[in-house]
Design a protein that fits this description.
InterPro entries: Marvel. Keywords: Membrane, Transmembrane, Transmembrane helix. Pfam families: MARVEL. With about 160 residues, the chain is mostly helical. It contains four helices and no strands. Helix 1 runs antiparallel to helix 4 and helix 2 runs antiparallel to helix 3. It is elongated, with a radius of gyration of 19 Å.
Length: about 160
């Protein structure tokens, strides 16, 4: 059982790190481009809220507690919300002529394209880790139920 807890903790810490990076990048972009965004700032506010929710819930779910259906629901809901944020940033970056969104070789600069591509990466990775955490929680729940059935039906 300790290996399962270690894996669950690693997943939560990864969610926390990727969500924090996405919050930071989105905040930086909003702060630096607040006058030039025009009508498209609502998408970035959505991304900011969703990534902040991912940050808060991954931090709260690091607290050891029995697994519940609420935890699984949060994992899958945040997966969907973060994929939506990924799509919003991807849609915004399309007309900027930044190249492919999957070309992540040069994201360490300070241009709009590099910042937004890094934001895309961290939103995508946070979403994937929330999905993996949800699937891991389902596997853990099914395993516990099967162990309970085996214990109830064994006579020796």
């Amino acid at each position: 059982m300790p290996a399962v807890r270690v894996l669950a903790t690693i997943l939560r810490i990864s969610q926390l790190a990727f969500s924090a990076a996405a919050v930071g990048l989105t905040s930086s972009y909003l702060y630096g481009h607040e006058c030039t965004l025009g009508g498209s700032h609502i998408n970035f506010i959505y991304v900011e809220i969703v990534t902040a929710l991912g940050l808060v819930f991954s931090l709260l779910l690091l607290i050891p507690a029995p697994s519940s259906i609420l935890e699984l629901g949060l994992d899958f809901a945040l997966f969907i919300l973060l994929l939506t944020a990924f799509g919003l940033i991807t849609t915004y970056i399309g007309p900027l002529d930044c190249g492919s969104i999957w070309d992540w070789c040069c994201i360490t600069g300070n241009t709009i394209c590099q910042t937004l591509k890094a934001d895309i990466i961290f939103c995508f990775l946070a979403a994937i880790f929330f999905l993996v955490s949800g699937l891991f929680g389902i596997w853990r729940s099914l395993k516990r139920k099967l162990e309970g059935l085996e214990a109830a039906t064994s006579y020796f």
